[in-house]
Design a protein that fits this description.
4-stranded mixed sheet; 8% strand; 203 residues; 8 helices; Glutaredoxin
Length: 203
C-alpha cells in the first residue's frame, strides 16, 4: 500500500492530487507543522529534513516531490498524465514538471522566508521586495507560456499541471500574481475545476 506523509493545504497536496487523478489506493499519514510530528525521530527516518511530501511504497521511500511524481507515473501511470517517451511534447513535459519546484516555488519560498513567515520585527523588507520581483518575473514567464492554451501542454492536462498548481496557488494567496497575468488566473481556475482537485485539497 502506498503511504503518503502529508500536511493538509501544503505542497504535499500535489502528490495527493496525483494519486487521486491516477485512481490509486493509498493511505495518508497526517502530520502537522505545529505539533512537532515532523521532527520526531520516526519521521526523520523517512524524511531527513522533516518536511513533506514523503512517500513509501513497499521498500521504496522517496522525499522529493518531482521524483515522487515521476515514480508514480512510471510505475502506475500506464501512460496517463504524461506524454510518451518518444512524443515531441516529452521535453516540455519534463521541463515544466521540474520547473514548478526548482524555479517557481523557489521564488515564492524566498518571499515567504523574508516577508511572511518571520514575526514582523524579524522580516527583511528589502530582501522580500527582491523576492517579490523575482516571483513576478517567474510568474510572467509562466503566464506567457500559457497564452492560447488551457494547460502547459498543447495535448491537455498532465502531471506537470499538477506539480505547477501549488506555486501558482500559493502565489495567489500571497498576492504575488502580477496584475497582467490573466492567463495564470484562468489556468488556476481550470485546475480547481477538476473533480480530483478538491478531494486532494480538503484532506
Amino acid at each position: 500500500m502506498i503511504r503518503l506523509y502529508h500536511v493538509p493545504q501544503s505542497r504535499s497536496a500535489r502528490i495527493l492530487w496525483l494519486l487521486e487523478e491516477l485512481g490509486l489506493e493509498y493511505e495518508i499519514e497526517s502530520l502537522s507543522m505545529q505539533d512537532g510530528s515532523m521532527k520526531r525521530p520516526e519521521y526523520l527516518a523517512v524524511h531527513p529534513l522533516g518536511r513533506v511530501p514523503a512517500l513509501r511504497d513497499g521498500e521504496v521511500t522517496l522525499f522529493e516531490s518531482g521524483a515522487i511524481a515521476q515514480y508514480l507515473l512510471e510505475k502506475y501511470g500506464q501512460g496517463r498524465l504524461e506524454p510518451a517517451a518518444d512524443s515531441p511534447e516529452r521535453p516540455a513535459f519534463l521541463q515544466w514538471l521540474h520547473w514548478s519546484e526548482a524555479t517557481l516555488m523557489i521564488t515564492v519560498s524566498e518571499y515567504i522566508r523574508f516577508g511572511v513567515r518571520p514575526p514582523e520585527p524579524e522580516r527583511i523588507p528589502a530582501a522580500a521586495e527582491i523576492a517579490r520581483g523575482r516571483a513576478h518575473e517567474t510568474l510572467r514567464a509562466l503566464d506567457a507560456a500559457l497564452a492560447g492554451r488551457e494547460f502547459l501542454l498543447e495535448s491537455g492536462f498532465s502531471a506537470a499541471d499538477v506539480m505547477m498548481s501549488a506555486g501558482v496557488r500559493i502565489a495567489r494567496i500571497l498576492g504575488l500574481l502580477p496584475e497582467d497575468s490573466a492567463n495564470l488566473a484562468a489556468y488556476l481556475d481550470r485546475l480547481e475545476q477538476r473533480p480530483a482537485y478538491p478531494r486532494a485539497h480538503q484532506a
